[in-house]
Design a protein that fits this description.
The complex is a heterodimer. Chain A is mostly beta strands. In chain A, the strands form 2 sheets. In chain A, strands 2, 4, 5, 6, 9, 10 and 11 form a 7-stranded mixed sheet that branches. In chain A, strands 1-3-8-7 form a 4-stranded antiparallel sheet, with no helix packed on it. Chain B is 0% helix and 54% strand. Chain B is built from no helices and 11 strands. In chain B, the strands form 2 sheets. In chain B, strands 2, 4, 5, 6, 9, 10 and 11 form a 7-stranded mixed sheet that branches. Chain B has a 4-stranded antiparallel sheet with strand order 1-3-8-7, with no helix packed on it. In chain B, a hairpin with a 4-residue loop joins strand 7 and strand 8. Classes of the chains: A mainly beta, B mainly beta. The interface between A and B is medium-sized, with 21 and 21 residues.
Chain lengths: 107, 117
């Protein structure tokens, strides 16, 4: 099975700061990667799919990049509403594998 | 608007059974694969089961294989998860998710299952 290693586990950022979260796959996942945001007490919301495609309605400050085994989510200009947990999902091979999550807080 | 509403959770003793339901609306349910994902308290998310649109393909995580059964009723727009031989480590918030291609594009609000004596 493919393993997803996500880093960092937690992150603190100032308003307006650019932040990055990484996911490393145990093998090539050919950009079959999605990113999600989960706010406390809420269900996860899709942000990015196909490694870099922005889901409809997601602010353009969110972007995804990467290929092969290395992928990243970038938030360009941290906003108060961006606080929450973020995780990645690989869908290249069954079973789907989720990253362990990154808790993003405002500094 | 896509909606996924889970129900059927609660407190159950170890070794007992419980059946979760997920009522879908806002899309053509019979056209999409569906999944169950769970999140234990303070832990990450774990995929546990998938079912294709017509129930032809069904997959389980090793942690629940042989104990849990995923099924669906396309006439009722409902996804199910029958859980048997429950263990304390099955305590989690269970999410129903809609599959689009290879990723989950919509998630329900989750239903809590607590396994404890």
């Amino acid at each position: 099975d493919i393993q997803m290693t996500q880093s960092p586990a937690s992150l603190s950022a100032s308003l307006g700061e650019t932040v990055s979260i990484e996911c490393l796959a145990s093998e090539d996942i050919y950009s079959y990667l999605a990113w999600y945001q989960q706010k406390p007490g809420k269900s996860p919301q899709l942000l990015i799919y196909a490694a870099n495609r922005l889901q409809d309605g997601v602010p353009s400050r969110f972007s995804g990049s990467g290929s092969g085994t290395q992928y990243s989510l970038k938030i360009s200009g941290m906003q108060p509403e961006d606080e929450g947990d973020y995780f990645c999902l690989q869908g290249s091979k069954f079973p789907p594998a989720l990253g362990s999550g990154t808790k993003l807080e405002i500094k | 608007e896509v909606q996924l509403v889970e129900s059927g959770g609660g407190l159950v003793q170890p070794g007992r059974s419980l059946k979760l339901s997920c009522l879908a609306s806002g899309f053509t349910f019979s056209n999409y694969g569906m999944n169950w994902i769970r999140q234990a308290p303070g832990k990450g998310l774990e995929w546990i089961a998938s079912i294709s649109s017509s129930s032809n393909y069904i997959y389980y995580a090793d942690t629940v294989k042989g104990r849990f059964t995923i099924s669906r009723d396309n006439g009722k727009n409902t996804l199910y998860l029958q859980m048997t031989s429950l263990r304390s480590e099955d305590t989690a918030l269970y999410y129903c998710t809609k599959l689009k291609s290879y990723y989950f594009d919509y998630w329900g609000q989750g239903v809590m299952v607590t396994v404890s004596s």
